[in-house]
Structures are given as C-alpha cells and as structure tokens.
Amino acid sequence: MSTKELTDRGGESMIVNCYKGCYFYRGGFPIPFEEHMKRVEDMALRSDDVILCSYPKSGTHWLWEVISMIVNEDLEYRERERGMDMLDFSPMSLLESIKSPRVLGSHIHFRFLPKEVLTKKPKVVYIVRDPKAVAVSYYNMTFGMKTVRSYDGHVPVKEYNGKWEDYLESFISGEVEYGSWFDHTLSWKQAREDNPDVPVFLLKYEDMKSDPVSCIQKLSTFLEKPNNIERAQAIADACSFSNIKKVNTGTRADGVVWKEGGNMFRKGQSNDWKHWFKVAQNERFEDVLMAKMNKRGVSE
Fold this sequence. Notes:
The structure is a single chain. This protein has a single domain, classed as Rossmann fold. 41% of the residues lie in helices and 14% in strands. The chain contains 13 helices and 9 strands. The mean pLDDT is 90.
C-alpha cells in the first residue's frame, strides 16, 4: 500500500504516504506516491543546484530563504512568491521550470534523493535541530493542520487530534509523518561517511540561532559565494524569525488551512520544549537519545 494510518496510544491517527518501508508526507497526490518518488530519484540535476535537507520542523523554511539569498546574491524573499521548492510534493514540471540556481528543499533520506547526486555532486546542506524542540513544534503543526500543500495547491488531510503525551510516544517510536527523527539523523550521518565525495554541509539549528552571521559566512564559503560580515549580517537580519514569519503570513507559502490558532511559524525558540516536557518525559527521551545516538542532549 502507498499509504498507512498511524494510530497513537490514545486512538487518534494520521495517514501518511509510504515508500520502500519509510513514512513520508501526509498529502494526497494526483499520481501514485511510488511514481512520484521514482520521478524524484530519476530527476535531472544541474551542477549549480543546492539541495537543502532536514527532518521536518528543523528550520527548513528559514534556511531555504538564507540559502536563496546567498546563491542569488540579493535580499529577496522567494518563498512568499512561489512556495519552497520541495522534492517531496512538487510536480516535476514545476521543479524543471525553475531558473538556476535552484534551491531544492526536502525532508527525505539521502538514499531517496535524485540518483545524479552521486554523479553531478551538487552541494547539499543538512540542518539538524534539538529533537525535543522538533517534537514540540511538529506536534503543534500536525495537530493544527487541516490542509497541506500538494501538486495542485492545497489538499485536505485527516485531522490529527491527539494529546501531546500520546504524540510524544509516537514521535519517539517513529510512528509519525517522515518516521523516526533518530533514524533520519543517523541515516544522514551514515550517508556522509559513505559518500565523502558528495559535498554535504552540516548545520545545527541552535548554532544558527546563537551566531547566524558566522554560520552564514561559513555556509556562503561552502556555496562558493563568500560574504563579508556586513553582507552576512544583512542576510541574517532579513531572515530573522520575525521577518520570515511576517513576509510569509497570508501568502502562498502559508496557504495551509489551520485550526484556530494554528500557524506554520510558531515561536522559533530553542528551549520552548522545557514548557512541554514533564520530568519523566524528559528522562525517557534522554534514555532513548542515549540508546539510539549514544549521547545525551544534542550539544556534542
């Protein structure tokens, strides 16, 4: 089957797309999801493409605008005009029509990227965020959405009405949209080790929050578009959370239908998870981090 219903311990559920044993996007497609993913894998890449990858709710929209400004050498907001160019659910005709340099977003594992990644070797950026912050942000988005972006505008999804404590258990076990954060992150770590000739830049969300200018300068150098401190500061200011939220609210990028109070851009904070996790939940999460990642916390 190309879809699966994932039910939390409280009986609430969501329906996700499936491909080769992995969970993907919740939205419906006008073609079988397997066919969409095969088109992605066979997609022709360009030498100046940049592919931005992440697990959902890791700062993807934010970093997409940053990278777009770096490679286009301007301060223009692009997502508000056309939406982020996502491999996950954009039709190939749209992706092929984008003028170079393209910044292609994706939440998929490395092995599902276009095969030409291994031959054309476009630059790839992977951003990772504290999984506790991801879990909280992901819950609020999953709970709040009534529609999602798809091939032709927006499509309704089965609404998820689960409680936070039940969603957290599903998140820990990987029974959510895009599957396990732990498996996703580890698979990218392994992919970098297995493919050292593919240029992959690893960026931590928390580093980008604490020192955006330095991160933008390093990222610019990786993208072969070096920027001085003044230019990096201008990009950081243009792409501050408040500005990104302001310019995208009510636009095509934020065309999702939400339950009352819902929004794609919530707080953008690093430590808001502390207001959600109870002591026992935090201890359980830390135990899973140790078991899965062989460490506690995400600062190492």
